[in-house]
Amino acid sequence: MERIIEKNLKKNDLDQFLNIISSLADTFSVERYYEHYLTSDEFDDIQHEFLSILEKETENLLERYKNDLSFQFLLKDQLNIKSIEDASGYFDELYEQDQDMFNSITLDEYQSFIKDESVFNERVLSRNLTRSTPSTRGPIMEMLFFDIENIKYIKHQLKHLFDYPYKLYNNKYENICFYRDEEVICVICSHEHQCIIMLSQDEIKLIEDVVKIK
Question: Is the model's pLDDT at 35 over the cut of 90?
């Protein structure tokens, strides 16, 4: 079940909300726009991953259209798409738009930047450079992943749910994403002032019973 929170929680509501989400999660990530030097291999790996994501999404849309009647009715009602041929053509147009986004960055651009000299400690489980995160798509982002116990280093910097940046390792991060068994259960989109929860109905009710999220 998905629930969107647009209220900028603060004080007790913020503490209660983060405590509940943290109790349900095992890891979390934060991210920042990455504008530092990349080798050609690093750049190619990032681009290859992003292209694979775009291609897979186009395939999934077509499969969903074939098998999901509610999706067929939605596209017919909103876009006048009435056949598999119409749907395929529409999804190809979307893919072409994605290709424009894919080509919007270049290796030369990233090789003109200075090298990143950030030093991370053992709290960082992993680091990933990607163009697709749970909250952002397009630019290259650096994601840092942590065990959930380390959320305390973010929490003390927050007075409101959508506050950012979070200062870590002399860098500025945003967009906390919580995971359970490597699946996203909550993502805070700082710029957009949206928090998306993906939990069971009972778990969302647990939050609603304690936190004023409307």
Answer: yes
Distance CA 88, CA 77 (A): 17
Residue 156, Cβ density class (10 Å: 0-12 exposed, 13-18 middle, ≥19 buried): exposed
CA nearest neighbour of 127 among 152, 110, 144: 144
Cα–Cα separations (whole angstroms), residue 117 to 36, 44, 77, 103, 149: 9, 21, 52, 27, 26
Look-up of token digits 């909300």: 17
pLDDT tens digits for range 92-112: 999 999 899 999 999 999 999
Element (H, E) at 84: helix 84-102
Peptide linkage before 139 cis (omega within 30 of 0): no
Per-domain residue ranges of the chain: 2-34+147-210, 40-111
Would strands 171-180 and 137-147 be described as parallel, antiparallel, or unpaired?
Answer: unpaired
83: three-class secondary structure by DSSP? coil
pTM metric for this prediction: 0.91
What's the whole-number mean pLDDT along residues 7-15? 94
Provide the terminal-to-terminal Cα distance of the chain, rounded to the nearest Å. 17
Tell me which amino acid residue 94 is.
Answer: L
pLDDT tens per residue, range 43-97:
999 999 999 999 999 999 999 999 999 999 999 999 999 999 999 999 999 999 9
